[in-house]
Amino acid sequence: MKLISVIGCGYLGAVHAACMAELGHTVIGLDTDTEKIAELAAGRAPFYEPGLNELLERNVAAGRLKFTSKYRDIADADVHFIAVGTPQLATGEGADLRFVDAASDALAAVLPRHRKVAPLIAGKSTVPVGTASRLAKLFGKRGAVLAWNPEFLREGFAVKDTLSPDRIVYGLPEKKSEAKLAEKLLDEVYARLLDEDIPKITADYATAELVKTSANAFLATKISFINAMAELCDATGADVTTLAKAIGHDDRIGKKFLRAGVGFGGGCLPKDIRAFIARAEELGAGRSLEFLRNVDAVNSRQRMRAVELLQESLDRPLEGATIAVLGAAFKPDSDDIRDSPALDIAAKVAELGATVRVTDPQAVDNVRRRQPERLVVDTVDEAIEGADAVMVLTEWKEYRKLNPKRVGKQVANKLVIDGRNCLEQGEWRDAGWQYVGMGRR
Ligand SMILES: NC(=O)C1=CN([C@@H]2O[C@H](COP(=O)(O)OP(=O)(O)OC[C@H]3O[C@@H](n4cnc5c(N)ncnc54)[C@H](O)[C@@H]3O)[C@@H](O)[C@H]2O)C=CC1
Ligand SMILES: O=C(O)[C@H]1O[C@H](OP(=O)(O)OP(=O)(O)OC[C@H]2O[C@@H](n3ccc(=O)[nH]c3=O)[C@H](O)[C@@H]2O)[C@H](O)[C@@H](O)[C@@H]1O
């Protein structure tokens, strides 16, 4: 059992803190957002993530999990995880490392100078390659050792992915004695997972940082590939869902991450590929990632295509029409609306003069807070009543299971744009709907 701190308790850090406590460690989560800390300290998740509330409740009650906003409260931890945000720079390219730097400085200032065993700092945030070796110098001056331990969890499956990851990656320092200490401490932190034969990969800092960004770049590429195929399917009358199924049977291609639709969003894939391109350019290797610009462009185009499909299919101008948008989160089982394709599309349709009613099972509060200009309603019924078209833009289970006959009675015009190819098109057509998928003409 180790004393662990987790700095930054957002979508990643709060889950990591709760899961480390669940593994039996004593954990202190730290965040500068005092409202978030108050919620977490009361054993409640400040955002929607399946399974997180139970973990928080149990471990806070057991006294294994505490939260604070004061850096001095975490000074004595054996291992400090850094999980603060690395958003896109306001200029649009490159990662903003402001929070990583502020957290590192604040932590370095409270680290005890003469500790029997050097404390370990383990970076979890997604950072441009080269960041770890820069921060190692800062922490080295305080007698601490740095490792980079990138995270691969998915929102919506964050607890499961943390307690049962596909692999654990350690980016270790060059100096042998430091690498040995870092590996030993991380092995103690993850002992229960390693006992279950979760693969562990040790590497240098740069490789560990690149493993993370290249994994996200690969996933983004897969999605844009299938979306490019969907465009071709639309141009030829072919069906992209059958195509994805057929190519996915080849193990070398695989079935996952081939769902065509309005594309990827969220707080990670879009900003991570842009930061990756920017970093490669800084390193004089921009040519190697030129293709990622196309991945990004194909992805942005999907959002516009959804709007065009709506315009082409609607037998009236968008100006003055009422459009129901089902889904606001960037993916189901999350309330995260960062760079959400659904909200981007809703904004474009509203710009074209339609009244757009947006709903979501979990994200409406976030939309009201962050996009007060959006017209948000709490239920599907309120969204679709008298609508000229329904757009399904996040594939929540409750939307996939909608009864087309029932909702058909509530709308003014039976047109559905299935931006996630998640509806049974036959059922909708049989119920008299004009069904428009993406790559499923
Ligand atoms: N959300 C996800 O599914 C995953 C995120 N990541 C990476 O993890 C990092 C964090 O991402 P999220 O949790 O999604 O972001 P987030 O925005 O939800 O959380 C970041 C947290 O850091 C806090 N913070 C900012 N400055 C701080 C400081 N100086 N000291 C203490 N706390 C501070 C913020 O208040 C916020 O609560 C990013 O680098 C992201 O790319 C990696 C894998 C998965
Ligand atoms: O670095 C991160 O933060 C994380 O980013 C993604 O996780 P996440 O953003 O939570 O969600 P995904 O399941 O990857 O979905 C991302 C977006 O792609 C879209 N998507 C996904 C799969 C697919 O086939 N098609 C598709 O359009 C989703 O709707 C969503 O908008 C990665 O999957 C994680 O491994 C990684 O840790």
TrEMBL record:
<protein>
    <recommendedName>
        <fullName>UDP-glucose 6-dehydrogenase</fullName>
        <ecNumber>1.1.1.22</ecNumber>
    </recommendedName>
</protein>
<dbReference type="InterPro" id="IPR014026">
    <property type="entry name" value="UDP-Glc/GDP-Man_DH_dimer"/>
</dbReference>
<keyword id="KW-0520">NAD</keyword>
<dbReference type="InterPro" id="IPR014027">
    <property type="entry name" value="UDP-Glc/GDP-Man_DH_C"/>
</dbReference>
<keyword id="KW-0560">Oxidoreductase</keyword>
<feature type="domain" description="UDP-glucose/GDP-mannose dehydrogenase C-terminal">
    <location>
        <begin position="324"/>
        <end position="425"/>
    </location>
</feature>
<dbReference type="InterPro" id="IPR008927">
    <property type="entry name" value="6-PGluconate_DH-like_C_sf"/>
</dbReference>
<dbReference type="InterPro" id="IPR036291">
    <property type="entry name" value="NAD(P)-bd_dom_sf"/>
</dbReference>
<dbReference type="InterPro" id="IPR017476">
    <property type="entry name" value="UDP-Glc/GDP-Man"/>
</dbReference>
<comment type="pathway">
    <text>Nucleotide-sugar biosynthesis; UDP-alpha-D-glucuronate biosynthesis; UDP-alpha-D-glucuronate from UDP-alpha-D-glucose: step 1/1.</text>
</comment>
<dbReference type="InterPro" id="IPR028357">
    <property type="entry name" value="UDPglc_DH_bac"/>
</dbReference>
<dbReference type="InterPro" id="IPR036220">
    <property type="entry name" value="UDP-Glc/GDP-Man_DH_C_sf"/>
</dbReference>
<dbReference type="Pfam" id="PF03721">
    <property type="entry name" value="UDPG_MGDP_dh_N"/>
</dbReference>
<dbReference type="Pfam" id="PF00984">
    <property type="entry name" value="UDPG_MGDP_dh"/>
</dbReference>
<comment type="similarity">
    <text>Belongs to the UDP-glucose/GDP-mannose dehydrogenase family.</text>
</comment>
<dbReference type="InterPro" id="IPR001732">
    <property type="entry name" value="UDP-Glc/GDP-Man_DH_N"/>
</dbReference>
<dbReference type="Pfam" id="PF03720">
    <property type="entry name" value="UDPG_MGDP_dh_C"/>
</dbReference>
